[in-house]
Each structure stands twice: as structure tokens, then as C-alpha cells.
């Protein structure tokens, strides 16, 4: 698989990134290691994780995914330098006091989280270290509107940036990224870096799929003009765009066992909205009408968009990994793209 430049950095990454957040919850360690082995064979050498994983987040599984990855690296001496490894520092708690108590995200918090990730990953350096969600209040994770009355920020962006830069200078991380960011947030991180001679952020990891194209509402222009890459996560809308929920017609408690929607905490998120399932079924039928599987159309849509530098695929089996990678190179006809745009016009972004 070919490599693409990440932002304005010297990192070269594969256009498919392996997301690992299910490792340690839905996926046991042996199966996770088999998936990692096969990813390497398929040429997918860009891997993403986070300190708060696995998901759904629980105190008992905090750090489990990084630990599983670290044990894989320990079993495969010499492989670490062949993988572009990304991880994330969690933002303020969001109801997860086992990650971080309080509202802020101080420089000390960032350093402590990074050092914890390095230990669990059994590595000396993380190639891309990202802020998992903004420290300030933003419309994200299903919240549609910015409300200044809810602002609780305690840590200025410059303080966060200085802490990350310190880790770069110590050789503990190579590049800096964001996640779940807004146009203002991306621009402010870049502005402060340029104003004070600090390293720039190279990417933002945001949701992007047929059910949530909110990235195209100005953030794509911001990233394009500033040279910041998009790492698109949830390209299958937590499985809604795979068609697995179409027959049951529900993402409620009766959702198929073993799926993400079988977890109550996931059902309560944006993807569990009835409108999201209604829209997904429309997109999935559109795919079938054109001789495609729902997965093929949803991933080909992301893989082919100019806005996307790398698409993060989260898999729970070798079969899913094979299927997702096999879609690479599929080009959607203009007629299909036109119908996709028409559906968005009718149904909006129910996964936003």
C-alpha cells in the first residue's frame, strides 16, 4: 500500500489506518495480535490507539488496548520502526474519573498521560500524539450547538501546546495532532504555533462518514488552507453502514449480540439515534441498488474523498479487516455520488 504525507510533517502514512479501540473489550488479546499480524501483511502500517481505550470505556479496561499493542511489539522485535503509531491523551473527564478528574488538562496531565502510554506501548516514542477531545467546551459527540454558558476551560491552548512541544523536544513524541476539533480550534493551534515558533499540529481525527459529513461544513476548508490532514474515524458509523442492523430494524436493546450497539453506552450516543438508522438503511439500499455492498460504498466514499488523508477502520475480526482493505481502489460512479449527495440533502447528518 502506498504512503501519503501527514500534514506538513515528514511522517508518511498508509491511507488506511487500523483503529484498535475494540482490543481489550470486544476483541481478546490473541485475536487482536492476529489482526495486527494480518494488517502488516496487507501493508496497513498506520495504527491508532488512545490511553482511554478500550471502548466502551470502563475503569477496568482503561489502558488495555495500549497494553495489548505493547505486548505485540515485544513479541516482534524490530517491527516498531515499521509502524507509524498514533495515540491520544484524553481530555477532561467526560464522566470518566479513572482517566482524569476535574475540568482542566494541565501540562502535567499531558506529560503524565504520555509517559503512561509509552510504558503500556513498550516504546520510547509515539509518532503522532493527539488531544483526544478539546479541553474547552465544544459541540461534539452528538452535541450540535456551541453554548458559551457551558464554557469551563481552565487550561489555555498555549499551555497545552507548550506541553506537547516539550515532549517533542524530549524525543517522546514526533508529531502533534488533534481530534474531535472545530475550525476555530485547528486554526488557533496553528496560529499559536506560528506566532511562537512552535511545532504545528499535523492532523485532526474527526468523525467522517455518510451519516456525518459535518467536517465538510467549513472544517475541510480550514484544514486544506492550513495544511492539516483529516484522519477520518467511524467511516461505517459504528457498523450502521455495514448493513448489519438493517434486518433487525433496531439499534436498541435487541440489536444483534456482539455488535457495538449491544452496549447500552453506545446506543445512547449519536449513532443510536433512530434517525441515524433510518438514514443508514437508505444509504445501504442505495449501495445494493448499484451492485455494491453497504460496506463497499461507505468505505469507497471515504477512501476517495480529497478531504481524507487516512481512513481509520475499526475491526473485530480478520474477515472484517480483509473486507475493508479489499475496498481500497473502488471508485464510486458520479451517478452514485450524486445520489449520495441527494440523500444527505434530504436527511442531513444524523450521526453528528
From TrEMBL:
Q: What CDD domains does the entry give?
A: AKR_Tas-like (cd19094)
Q: Which residues form the signal peptide?
A: none
Residue stretches making up the NADP-dependent oxidoreductase domain: 15-343
The UniProt keywords, alphabetically, are:
Oxidoreductase
Which Pfam family name is an example for this entry? Aldo_ket_red
Mind telling me which InterPro entries this protein's record contains?
A: AKR_Detox_Biosynth, NAD(P)_OxRdtase_dom_sf, NADP_OxRdtase_dom
Q: What is this protein called?
A: Aldo/keto reductase
Taxonomic placement: Bacteria, Pseudomonadati, Pseudomonadota, Betaproteobacteria, Burkholderiales
Amino acid at each position: 500500500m502506498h504512503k501519503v504525507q501527514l500534514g506538513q510533517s515528514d511522517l508518511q502514512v498508509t491511507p488506511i489506518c487500523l483503529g484498535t479501540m475494540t482490543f481489550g473489550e470486544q476483541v481478546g488479546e490473541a485475536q487482536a495480535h492476529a489482526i495486527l499480524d494480518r494488517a502488516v501483511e496487507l501493508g496497513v502500517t498506520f495504527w491508532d490507539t488512545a490511553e482511554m481505550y478500550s471502548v466502551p470505556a470502563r475503569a477496568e479496561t482503561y489502558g488495555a488496548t495500549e497494553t495489548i499493542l505493547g505486548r505485540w511489539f515485544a513479541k516482534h522485535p524490530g517491527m516498531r520502526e515499521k509502524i507509524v503509531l498514533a495515540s491520544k491523551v484524553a481530555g477532561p473527564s467526560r464522566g470518566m474519573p479513572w482517566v482524569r478528574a476535574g475540568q482542566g488538562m494541565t501540562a502535567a496531565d499531558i506529560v503524565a498521560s504520555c509517559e503512561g502510554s509509552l510504558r503500556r506501548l513498550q516504546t520510547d516514542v509515539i509518532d503522532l500524539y493527539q488531544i483526544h477531545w478539546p479541553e474547552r467546551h465544544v459541540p461534539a459527540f452528538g452535541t450540535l450547538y456551541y453554548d458559551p454558558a457551558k464554557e469551563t476551560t481552565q487550561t489555555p491552548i498555549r499551555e497545552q501546546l507548550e506541553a506537547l512541544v516539550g515532549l517533542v523536544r524530549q524525543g517522546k513524541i514526533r508529531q502533534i495532532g488533534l481530534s474531535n476539533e472545530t475550525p476555530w480550534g485547528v486554526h488557533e493551534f496553528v496560529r499559536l504555533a506560528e506566532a511562537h515558533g512552535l511545532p504545528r499540529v499535523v492532523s485532526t481525527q474527526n468523525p467522517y462518514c455518510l451519516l456525518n459529513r459535518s467536517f465538510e461544513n467549513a472544517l475541510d476548508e480550514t484544514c486544506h488552507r492550513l495544511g492539516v490532514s483529516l484522519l477520518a474515524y467511524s467511516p461505517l458509523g459504528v457498523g450502521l453502514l455495514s448493513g448489519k442492523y438493517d434486518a433487525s430494524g433496531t439499534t436498541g436493546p435487541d440489536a444483534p449480540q456482539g455488535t457495538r450497539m449491544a452496549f447500552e453506552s453506545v446506543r445512547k450516543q449519536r449513532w443510536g439515534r433512530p434517525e441515524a438508522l433510518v438514514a443508514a438503511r437508505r444509504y445501504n439500499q442505495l449501495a445494493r441498488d448499484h451492485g455494491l455492498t453497504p460496506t463497499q460504498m461507505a468505505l469507497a466514499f471515504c477512501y476517495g474523498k480529497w478531504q481524507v488523508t487516512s481512513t481509520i477502520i475499526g475491526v473485530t475480526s480478520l474477515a472484517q479487516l480483509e473486507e475493508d482493505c479489499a475496498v481500497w481502489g473502488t471508485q464510486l460512479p458520479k451517478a452514485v455520488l450524486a445520489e449520495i449527495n441527494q440523500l444527505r440533502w434530504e436527511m442531513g447528518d444524523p450521526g453528528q
